[in-house]
Amino acid sequence: MQTGSEACAFCNEVRELRESHIVPKFVFRWLKNSGVSPYLRNHQNPNKKVQDGVKIPLLCNDCEQLFEKYETPFAKFIFRPFVDDPTYTVMYSDWCAKFAASVMWRAGTFFLLTSSNGLPVEVRQQIEAACDVWRTFILGASPNPSQYELHMVPFDLIESSVGVPLHKSLNTYLQRIIDTHLFGFTDANSQIISVKLGPIGLFGFVSPPRDKWAGSRIKVRSGQFKLQNLKLPLGLFQYLNYRSEVVFEQLESMSDVQKSKVMDMIEEHSDAFFESNTYRAMLQDIKLSS
Questions:
Q1: SS3 290
Q2: CA–CA separation, 11 vs 288, rounded Å?
Q3: Low-confidence residues of the chain, pLDDT below 70?
Q4: Interatomic CA distance for residues 214 and 226, integer angstroms
Q5: CA nearest 102: which of 9, 199, 208?
Q6: Is the pTM of this model over 0.90?
Q7: Interior angle at CA 167, CA 247 and CA 162, nearest 5
């Protein structure tokens, strides 16, 4: 869908703007196709059924096409294979870093446009600087994202945890929730943009953390990912655990009427539900809780 003529946020040309997804559309298509309902529910407003993710007038058609150039191989060669098989070794080339940069640019720009006075001046300036570098990297005007590193973390089911308290729905959060968030990591001076595409997390360093992230940084030219090769700080796990708590607290605020409709939908499509990734994640959460 197109809106009126305004300056495109990416190329700055005055053109007809598209209703642009912040999180790529293929992620929401997967979420609907792998669920039991033709509708989605945003955890920030769980009583409202929606057909798609958040969209705002942001990009012109040319810039939309540029971003889709990187979305297509990511969906084909990383997202869909990993969803089908979490042991899959992710292989990629130069399109992967450009895709991640485009997602981080969209999320960062969205925060800047919608947060109004909610962001401290210093944090706003940091996001602006990061988005500017990600933009020039996407356009080929800079060879890499510099200090604004791009990281990818695939999530498998958590089968056990020794001595670390887990939120009761952490597996369901990691596998099924789409979540975009800006967070301070370890200390107040570190800021990271997190965009969770279901079972794959993308992270953009706005202000680099002190803790080391090993095996997750997306290389500019080509590389591979494997779950077993990742060595990530405990703070990341604590953050994901915290987001699980926040998101499901919002989802649990759903009205009784809407909860009843969800249960009716599950009963109507019970065979599909019990074969779904949602059910497997929920079952693992129950096992861990007990």
A1: coil
A2: 48
A3: 1-4, 116-117, 162, 185-188
A4: 12
A5: 9
A6: yes
A7: 150
